[in-house]
Amino acid sequence: MEARAIHRYVPSSPRKMRLVVDLIRGKNIEEAISLMHFSTKHASKIVEKVLRSAVSNLQNKVEGKRIENENIFVKTAFVNGGPSMKRVLPAPMGRAFRIKKRSNHLTIIVAEREATNETTTNLKTNKKTEKSE
Question: What's the CATH number of domain 2-132, 3.90.470.10, 3.40.50.150, 3.90.550.10, 2.30.30.40?
């Protein structure tokens, strides 16, 4: 089971946001939230908000049971470039420089970790018993 959260038109450059998003990709939720909470980057506050939203979306998606935070991990997290606002900065000698104020779209997908350890050990023991017979 997986869920996602998207924050569009974030007023920060995609390059700065990718520095922060690369830290949490593939990590456990508790570890990812603590990394974002104590990070000094401005983008980490936005990523933390979207990450908490994705976890909430996953818990709301599964109505019948409660999902523990230890079983949730960041499956994918990526940043796409958004529209750029073009601005003009006055320059010396009557000239003007163009400035691009960049924005980005942040997408985080979280998933529930399956109980793969038990199933793989069961498969291994079943294969061993078949070979011995």
Answer: 3.90.470.10
Which tokens in the block code for residue 83?
């529209």
Other residues' Cβ atoms within 10 Å of the Cβ of residue 12: 19
pTM of the predicted model over 0.70: yes
pLDDT at residue number 119: 47
User: Within a 10 A sphere around the Cβ of 61, how many other Cβ atoms?
Assistant: 12
What are the φ/ψ torsions at residue 6 (nearest 5 degrees)? -125, 135
Q: Do the beta carbons of residue 87 and residue 99 sit within 8 Å?
A: yes
CA of residue 84 relative to chain centroid, distance: 23
What would the two tokens of residue 129 be?
A: 């018993």
Domain ranges of the chain: 2-132
